[in-house]
Task: structure prediction
Amino acid sequence: MLGRADRAEPMPDLPKNKKKRVLFLALILLAAAVLLAGVYVFHVGGEMTDFGVCYQGGQRIVRGETLYREADGHLQYKYSPASALFFAPLTLLPYGAAKIIWYMLEFGFLAGIFFFFYRILPVEGKRAGPVLGWTFLIELKFVAREIELGQVNLFILFLLTAMLYLLAGKKETVAGFLWGASLLFKPYALVFLPYLLLKRKLQTLIAGLVSVLVGLALPAIFYGPRGYLAVLREWPMTLSKSTTGLLASYDNASLYGFLLKTFPTLPTRDAFAFLLVIFLALALSALWLIVKGRAPVAPPNSEVLEVAFLLILIPLFSPLGWNYNYLYSIPAVMIIVAAWRRLAPALKIVLIVDFVLISTSVVELWGRGAFHLYTQH
Result:
């Protein structure tokens, strides 16, 4: 006979409404998994050309081969040698399996972006469903193109969003490491350099510098000192040769690309003067945000708005600000959606028109002619 204390206690029943929520969530996750698997099998799996470039870079650095070759044509490796080390572990898998892993990681990065940024949104009464749902729909065409190509922008934005989350938690050193790590892929995060200086985030800056230096030094393990110096010399040469012919591409959505396409006869001096005026205006706007954020009545985590503003500048001022690079506006859109009830009616109308244009401007809906006209300008 078992004593009273030895008898197994029955598991308490979950409330019916909680059971329903768990079941509903499980069905949503299953449907999402089936949908994403179908998208990969029938569409994305045959694409991901940019990931192919990264995978090849990982193979080459492990073999001690040069990364930068003119023979690769449009699909030349353009990132730093250190970034190739990041992709090297994936080369242990067959290319097809590595593509599936990267495809899954891209959605993980997107989920991380939403998670970190939502946690620090300085908006009272925010609701996760509307904020995340509407932001996803507005940004879907950018995210879809990013994943279709197998690009690294979601990964970079994930690092920068995690950086902001850590800064909000006063973990400046780790935040700096993430900031520096992002610079090893693309120099986009340099937009935060003057910001961090103004904010006196010296720990973040020093940690970022250390991260960059260590990252740039590691590839010497595979090349040796002399071989690595040769690779470092080839890197800027490849960038200068491969970039020029792409600046006037129809889907280069940077301000510089816009000027080249819209005013092809505009003198270079005038183009740079125009860009400088816009840059100074936006820099003053960013400075105004920082000053407002220091006011006694400023909301907590006011840095969130400042960083979201700076992220939008990345595709604007990058020489090759591809259309899908505007996914860096995800944090800004999250702020707008979260604060929707506070906006003036006229502003809401403008934003609705803007968001509809953003989310529906795809070739399948607009047709090739209208889509190219819109994207080019």
